[in-house]
Amino acid sequence: MKTMEMLGVAVGVVMAVGLLSGWRLFRKNTLEVASGTVRDRGKGDRRLSVIIPARNEAHNLPHLLESLRAQTLPPDEIVVVDDASEDGTGEVAARYGVTVIRNEELPRGWTGKNWALWNGYRHAGGDLLLFLDADVRMAPDALASLVAARDRAGGVVSVVPFHEARRFHEKLLLVVNLLGMFAFTSPYENGNPRKGLYGSCILTTREDYEKVNGHASISSEVTDDLSLGGRYMAAGIPVTNFLGAGLISFRMYPRGIRSALQGMAKSAALSMALLRRETIWLCACWMIGLVLSELSLLLLNTPAGLLFLAGYVLYTAQFFHLARYCGRFGVILPVLHPLPVLFFLAILAYSYWQTAVVGSVTWKGRQFPVKGGREA
Questions:
Q1: 3-class secondary structure for the chain?
Q2: Where exactly are the structural domains of the chain?
């Protein structure tokens, strides 16, 4: 067999392994819409508190608070923690009649979000605690479905929201979103003693939250959601993650590509260290096969060109199928997936540079060390 033919076979095998890795990592664990009977049963005699940390979120809060008003199972209280905002976040929240807490001065050893979530818990009175990011949007049956899912699963649950990507730079997060979905649906994470939660939407009982000492137990962790899940697992409390397609969505970083880069890079490298080895290897196989398939754009006139092109087409089909569960990315970027691949690699490189070289990350005007300390 000629050298080029052998190389073509080897490349074909790697692309096939990559495609199969993607299918192995994905599990369609979507949040089910609550039935009428379940909605009627609702919370029972339990009180549900929604806690929203908000730093310069005046543009996002109206969407979330309006969606909470429209719930078939309304919350008993909503607590918005205004974390030193400069855009009128607190005033916007107050217009909706919710409880607004001005976050206290950031103590040494805390990140801003963890401190805001902890203060929100201290001011909330619910038996059920729902932590939501300000960019989340809830369909009318979302809360009823979420409470029902937690009652079935027990322990603590989180949801990976469906990404409503509208602008071009948001759609560049396609590969990032797919890899994030893999990390939370991977069957290998079920046995991970450090199994993480998705921080945008976490529902827990007050009893379980206090048992693990909540966000105070991870006060300095940049990977707050993943680290919090590990605390629940260590306490013997089950951790279950769902996909939010159809019920819970968000818009990530609509303001520009810089915020997208900083927001994703702050924890990208650190998060991988908390995943099981099997999940990391399969994600790596998927990425390697993907990049090889994209070489078809350069090698169409070579003997292996058609093989590369076949891999490209199969990966494109996989993108379209998986994107149905993680976000709305249109038609162009799933086809031109080398662009979101390049953006992901830029995010990963920047994340490693911050964590390994600089030793700190930057987000929303604050800089903080990756191993504890005080935000600047």
A1: CCHHHHHHHHHHHHHHHHHHHHHHHCCCCECCCCCHHHHHHCCCCCCEEEEEEECCCCCCHHHHHHHHHCCCCCCCEEEEEECCCCCCHHHHHHCCCCEEEECCCCCCCCCHHHHHHHHHHHHCCCCEEEEECCCEEECCCHHHHHHHHHHHHCCEEEEECEEECCCHHHHCCHHHHHHHHHHHHCHHHHHCCCCCCCCCEEEEEHHHHHHCCHHHHHCCCCCHHHHHHHHHHHCCCCEEEEECCCCEEECCCCCCHHHHHHHHHCCHHHHHCCCCHHHHHHHHHHHHHHHHHHCHHHHCCCCCHHHHHHHHHHHHHHHHHHHHHHEECCCHHHHCCHHHHHHHHHHHHHHHHHHHHHCEEEECCEEEEECECCCC
A2: 3-26+275-369, 36-172+191-255
For 200-251, how does the pLDDT look when each residue is reduced to its tens digit (9 = 90+)? 999 999 999 999 999 999 988 878 888 899 999 999 999 999 999 999 999 9
Do 304 and 7 touch, CB atoms closer than 8 A?
A: yes
Q: Output the six-digit token pair for 55.
A: 């730093």
Residue 351 clears pLDDT 90, i.e. is over it = no
Residue among 131, 122, 118, 146 at smallest CA distance from 31: 146
How far apart CA 54 and CA 20 sit, in angstroms, is 40
Q: What mean pLDDT comes out for the span 246-259?
A: 88
Question: Domain 36-172+191-255 belongs to what topology?
Answer: Spore Coat Polysaccharide Biosynthesis Protein SpsA; Chain A (3.90.550)
pLDDT of residue 112: 85
Amino acid occupying residue 1: M
Q: pTM of the prediction?
A: 0.90
